[in-house]
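Lab manual, section 2.4: Encoding a predicted structure.

Procedure: take the sequence of the chain (306 residues), apply the prediction step described in section 2.3, and record the output as C-alpha cells. A sample record is shown.
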Amino acid sequence: MTPEAEASMGFVGVSTGQSSIMKVFPEWARVLGLPASRLTGFDLPLDAGRDQYREVVERIRRDPLLPGALITTHKIGVHRAAAELFDELDEFATLCGEISSVSKRDGQLIGHAKDPVTAGLALEEFLAPDHFASTGGELLCLGAGGAGTAIIWYLARRPDSPRRIVCTDSSAERLAELTAVLERGGVGTDQLRTVVADGPADSLVAELPEGSVVVNATGLGKDRPGSPLSPDVRLPRLGVAWELNYRGSLDFLHTARAQAASRELIVVDGWRYFIHGWSQVIAEVFGLSLDSATVDRLAEAAEAVR
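Recorded output:
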C-alpha cells in the first residue's frame, strides 16, 4: 500500500506543520497501536470564511481514510459554518458553539467539544483542590474563545470555585457569548465580570489578591506575536500563571518566569494541556479508553521528540 493510500488523522489549524504533534503523533501511534501513523494538516487563516470551513468538514466526512480530526483555533468557526453537516454534536459543543473533535461512528459524523475535559485534566495537575478557598485568590482569564470559556466553565462548577472571575477579550460579542453559555448551562454568573480589552490588561492584574490564577487564553504568543500583559506587570504573589501556548514567542510565559522567584509563582506552560487535548481527541477518533498510566506513557514519548 502506498503512503498516499494509508489512513491518517486530520488536524485543522493555522500553521499545523509547525506543531510538535507532527513529530509526536507517529510515536503515539506506535505506543497505542493506531491504524494511522501520520496527520493530514488543514491550514486555514484566522479569518477563514464559511465555505472554507465547510469544505474541510466535507473532506473529512467523505474520505474513508480520514477517521476523524482535531480542530484548534477554528473550533467556533467550524461550528458556526458547518454544525448542520454533523449527524451528532455532544452537549458542550451545542451549548458552547464549538467543535474541537471530529469522529465517525457507524457512518455518522460526530462533533465533540473536548476543552472542558482537557482544561480539567490539566488544571488538576497543578492546582490544589482547595486552592481558592485557602488563598482567597480569584481568576483572571485573558481570552474568551473556546479554551477560555472551557476553563471558566470548569472552574465555575468546581467545588473549590474562585469567588470572582474576570474575563477579558477584544470582542464584546465573545464576552456576551461566554455569559450566555454559562447561563444556558445553569452556571451562576454573579461572580463573573467581563471586560473588553484591546491592550495590556495590567490594571486588572493589579486588582487581584494574592493566590490568584492568571491565564493567557488569547492565542497571543503563538500564532500571533505579543502578550495580553506588558513586561512591567506585577503578577499576584503566591499566584498561578498559566500560559496555554507551548510554542511561539511565548511573551506571557517569559514575563511570568522572570517573576516566578520574587513573586513565589507557580508558572505553567501549555505542554500538558497539549498532551491532554490531543490524547482525548485521539481516544475519541479511534475508540480508545485512556487511563492515567497510558497518558503518562504518551507524555514520555512526546517529551522525547519535543
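Check your result against the sample. Residues 271-286 form the longest helix (16 residues).
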